[in-house]
């Protein structure tokens, strides 16, 4: 398998981040796949902009290689009323999206979401997805990495880990070591932001720190210690960012490496 087959887009509908970045971006998940050669994508509702039924979108994204669909969208998306979130809706569109192989809960580890989806409910979601041939993923941020979340993490097949704010990349070794220790035995992916979406403002990523992170994560991919690297995202994929140039450079250099 080539390294680029282990790369993912954290996919939102085109233009989803235009309100929080100083660019007018129009790149779709499909366009991102063509431009960067990253043909796997999470598809995640942003601000509630993806609502069931998902069948038409599943058809639209059928050209992607692999897709993992949000059972619960980002923090700005309203929580579904159904006990199992949008689990049934994801399963219902499998006939139109045969490339869908998983479900994901974005921004999960908040008090509201943990209360709304306790382990007893998460286990039901996991079973229903697994019975349909799909795995179940969540997102974990650096601010939660030293909390004991075992009873929740045990309910997921896979976990993706994200450093919020590029300054934290300076401690990437410490954070990743901790992440791999608390998720031992699970599928894991590491996320990389193409833009610095900090709580106190937004700025381009530091190019040197971005290179440090991508080199670290590609090395972990090549040594088979992780299952994938995710880039956030197509929403800034057509912006005039140094990180976009660097990403293309690294994919050209290492994308065809056999791992």
Structural notes for this entry:
By secondary structure, the protein is of the alpha/beta class. It has a single domain (3-254), classed as TIM Barrel. Helix content is 32%, strand content 21%. The protein contains 9 helices and 10 strands. It has helices at 29-36, 55-60, 87-92, 111-116, 119-131, 150-153, 172-182, 207-222, 242-254; strands at residues 7-11, 40-43, 66-72, 100-105, 135-141, 158-162, 187-193, 195-198, 201-204, 228-232. Strands 1-2-3-4-5-6-7-10 form an 8-stranded parallel β-barrel, surrounded by 4 helices. Strands 8-9 form a two-stranded antiparallel sheet. Strand 5 (135-141), helix 6 (150-153) and strand 6 (158-162) form a beta-alpha-beta unit. Helix 8 packs parallel to helix 9 (242-254). The radius of gyration is 17 Å and the shape is globular.
List keywords for this structure.
259 residues; alpha/beta; 32% helix; 8-stranded parallel beta barrel; single chain; 10 strands; TIM Barrel
Number of strands: 10
**Percentage of residues in strands:** 15-25%
- The helix-and-strand class reads alpha/beta
Estimate nothing, just give the exact number of structural domains: 1
CATH class equals Alpha Beta
Order of helices and strands: EHEHEHEHHEHEHEEEHEH
Whole-number mean pLDDT:
97
CATH topology: TIM Barrel
Share in helix:
25-40%
Q: How would you characterize the largest beta sheet?
A: 8 strands, parallel, barrel
| Beginning-to-end CA distance, first to last residue | 6 Å
């Amino acid at each position: 398998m080539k390294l680029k087959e282990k790369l993912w887009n954290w996919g939102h509908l085109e233009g989803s981040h235009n309100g929080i970045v100083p660019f007018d971006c129009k790149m779709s998940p499909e366009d991102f796949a063509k431009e960067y050669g990253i043909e796997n994508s999470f598809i995640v509702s942003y601000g509630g902009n993806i609502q069931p039924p998902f069948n038409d979108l599943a058809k639209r994204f059928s050209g992607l290689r692999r897709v993992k669909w949000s059972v619960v969208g980002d923090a700005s998306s309203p929580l579904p009323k159904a006990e199992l979130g949008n689990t049934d809706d994801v399963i219902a569109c499998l006939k139109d999206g045969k490339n869908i192989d998983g479900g994901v809960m974005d921004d999960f580890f908040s008090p509201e979401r943990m209360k709304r989806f306790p382990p007893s409910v998460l286990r039901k979601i996991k079973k229903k997805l697994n019975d349909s041939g799909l795995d179940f993923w969540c997102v974990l941020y650096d601010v939660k990495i030293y909390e004991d979340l075992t009873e929740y993490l045990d309910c997921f097949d896979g976990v993706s880990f994200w450093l919020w704010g590029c300054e934290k990349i300076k401690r990437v070794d410490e954070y990743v070591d901790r992440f791999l220790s608390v998720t031992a035995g699970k599928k894991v992916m590491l996320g990389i932001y193409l833009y610095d979406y900090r709580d106190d403002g937004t700025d381009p990523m530091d190019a040197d720190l971005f290179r440090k992170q991508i080199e670290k994560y590609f090395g972990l991919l090549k040594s088979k210690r992780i299952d994938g690297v995710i880039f956030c995202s197509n929403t800034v994929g057509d912006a005039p960012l140094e990180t976009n140039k660097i990403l293309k450079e690294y994919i050209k250099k290492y994308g065809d490496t056999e791992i």
